[in-house]
Amino acid sequence: MSASEIDGYLTGVEEPGRSTLQRLRQSILRAVPEAEEGMSYGMPAFRVDGKVVAGFAAFKKHLSYLPHSGSVLDELGDELAGYSMTKGSLHFAVDGPLPDDLVAKLVTVRLRQAAGPGGD
User: Fold this and answer.
1) Is residue 31, in this structure, part of any structural domain at all?
2) Which of 12, 25, 90, 107 could form a disulfide with 65 if both were Cys (CB 3.0 to 4.6 A apart)?
3) Which residues contact 25 (CB under 8 A, 6 or more apart)?
4) 107: nearest Cα among 42, 40, 25
5) Cα–Cα distance for residue pair 67/54, rounded to 1 Å
């Protein structure tokens, strides 16, 4: 895994999505500076101790934060009001970055899960 893979991915994203995702990338790295950057399933991902703890993806009409767990978003419940989501992705506008404090909470929940029994 390498940061250059994420750089390449972002090169293919049109503005303002590219800048929004770059800001998310920095926010994730502030929350988990020891993360190794790379790709997982063709999308940018951040690993800690070999486990993917965060990721993101660009789509035509929205961007997604990917916690790589089906229960992270449920745990944050009301804090995610106003965002659309699926079980495994939080959607946000191409020009509407996620707040740093929300990203930190998302990463913290995932890190706790990854460190727990089963570590999934």
Assistant:
1) yes
2) 90
3) 6, 10, 37, 44, 56
4) 25
5) 5
The C-alpha R_g of the chain, in whole angstroms, comes to: 13
d(CA 120, CA 107): 14
Number of domains in the chain: 1
Which tokens is 75 given? 């745990």
**98 found inside a domain:** yes
Is 119 part of any domain? no
What is the DSSP secondary structure assignment for residue 10, as one 8-state letter? H
* Residue 33 burial (C-beta neighbours within 10 Å; 0-12, 13-18, 19+): exposed
Output the domain CATH number for residue 28. 3.90.1150.200
Is residue 120 one of the residues assigned to a domain? no
* Phi-psi map region of 76: left, alpha, beta (phi>0 left; psi -120 to 50 alpha): alpha
User: pTM higher than 0.85 for the full model?
Assistant: yes
Q: pLDDT averaged over consecutive 10-residue blocks of the chain (120 residues)? A: 89 96 97 96 94 95 94 92 94 95 96 78
Cβ-contact 109, 75 below 8 angstroms:
yes
